[in-house]
From TrEMBL:
KW Metal-binding (keyword) present: no
Alphabetical GO biological process terms: cytochrome complex assembly; heme transport
Assigned keywords, A-Z: Cell inner membrane, Cell membrane, Cytochrome c-type biogenesis, Membrane, Transmembrane, Transmembrane helix, Transport
Membrane-crossing segments per the record: 6-30
Subcellular location(s) per record: Cell inner membrane
Topology term for the membrane: Single-pass membrane protein
Family: Belongs to the CcmD/CycX/HelD family.
InterPro entries xrefs: Haem_export_protD_CcmD
Protein name, UniProt field: Heme exporter protein D
Length: 58
C-alpha cells in the first residue's frame, strides 16, 4: 500500500489525532475517578443531594 508523496504527513496526522484522543480519554477517566471519590466523601460526611429530596420535604 502506497500513500504517495504525502505519506509522512498522513501518518503524522493520524498519529497526532490518536495521541489527542488518547489524552482526552485519559483526562475523562481521571476526572471521573476524582469526582466519584469526591461524591463518596460527601456521602460519608452526610451531605445529601437536593434531587434526593421530595417536594414535601421542604
Amino acid at each position: 500500500m502506497s500513500l504517495g508523496p504525502y505519506a509522512s504527513f498522513i501518518v503524522t496526522s493520524y498519529a497526532a489525532a490518536a495521541v489527542v484522543i488518547a489524552i482526552l480519554i485519559g483526562w475523562v477517566v481521571l476526572d471521573h475517578r476524582s469526582l466519584t471519590a469526591r461524591l463518596r466523601e460527601f456521602d460519608r460526611s452526610g451531605v445529601t443531594r437536593r434531587s434526593g429530596r421530595s417536594a414535601v420535604d421542604s
